[in-house]
Design brief:
about 290 residues; alpha+beta; four-stranded antiparallel sheet; about 20% strand
């Protein structure tokens, strides 16, 4: 197994307006590219958590800098494309290896470029913060198929184990989606099929809810906006309603109370609970 982690498209952190650093030969790619102007871009959200509802409008400079960040991330990812191509080509040159190798490409979080008036960052419960790519290729997986249910990074390792014919240990939080991915059982690895047969789950059997937890880092100011704080601590439950074909998120924010005079103890209390209608990356602010 080879695990490859790349720096791109992370920023070179620091004061001012940090951006990703692309390879010099890609420095002028995508001229004029701007971040998507989704309905929640630079939108006022008065019904949301205090950190969201008190965001000031983006200035022209802040919006321009967020566009430059977006463009630099695309530029830096061209080198990741080159790396993926190089790894694939190296495996393809070894006789017989391509037919028994899985390639999995994913990430750890989404991003924002002006959504809800926050020009940069990743620290919240909304689609642009949470959505990640999860692309996989290998024996038993039909091309152009997709998995449209709830999943997260905790499911990655159980899935890798399932494809290798190993059952998920009880110590892992996630679950394998190998039973969904391996729609072509005839070309799938025999050891993986054996595990699926013992498991007994059908392709459509999967979770309807997904827990998401985040603990605020403290005050984080990026591009002149407060984008994280201690009581941006929350637990969220994503709920898939198959009958309505709607994805809902219930979010409970916790005010973190520190350094009490009565002994410096730390407590949490529910500050706000709301249900957000998940309209995808392009959804505007709203509650139901």
């Amino acid at each position: 197994m080879a695990y490859i982690a790349v720096k791109a498209p992370h920023i070179q952190d620091g004061p001012g307006w940090p951006v990703a650093l692309p390879a010099p030969w890609y420095d002028h790619a995508f001229p004029g590219l701007k971040a998507p102007r989704t309905p929640n871009w630079n939108a006022s959200c008065p019904e949301h958590h205090w950190m969201i509802r008190t965001q000031p409008p983006l200035t022209h400079e802040q919006a321009s800098r967020a566009d430059a960040l977006y463009r630099s991330r695309w530029q830096s990812l061209l080198s990741v494309d080159d790396m993926v191509e190089g790894v694939f080509d190296a495996v393809a040159k070894i006789p017989g290896e391509l037919e028994k190798t899985y390639f999995l490409f994913t990430s750890d979080h989404g991003y924002r470029f002006g959504q809800m008036r926050m020009p940069q960052g990743k620290w919240n419960a909304y689609e642009n913060d949470l959505r990640i790519p999860f692309v996989i290729r290998g024996p038993g997986i039909r091309a152009q198929t997709s998995f449209d249910q709830l999943g997260s990074q905790v499911d990655t390792m159980p899935t890798v184990l399932g494809l290798a014919g190993i059952e998920t240990p009880d110590s892992m939080d996630g679950r394998s989606i190998a039973h969904v991915l391996l729609s072509d059982r005839e070309s799938a690895p025999a050891q993986a099929v054996a595990v699926l047969d013992r498991d007994g789950r059908g392709p459509g059997e999967w979770r309807r809810t997904q827990l998401i937890e985040y603990y605020g880092l403290g005050d984080v100011v990026r591009y002149q906006h407060l984008e994280d704080t201690a009581n941006n601590t929350f637990r969220a439950l994503r709920v898939m309603d198959p009958s309505a074909k709607v994805l809902l998120v219930m979010v409970a924010y916790f005010s973190v109370l520190l350094a009490y005079e009565s002994g410096g103890r730390e407590e949490s209390q529910v500050d706000r609970v709301h249900i957000v209608a998940e309209l995808g990356l392009f959804g505007a602010c709203g509650r139901v």
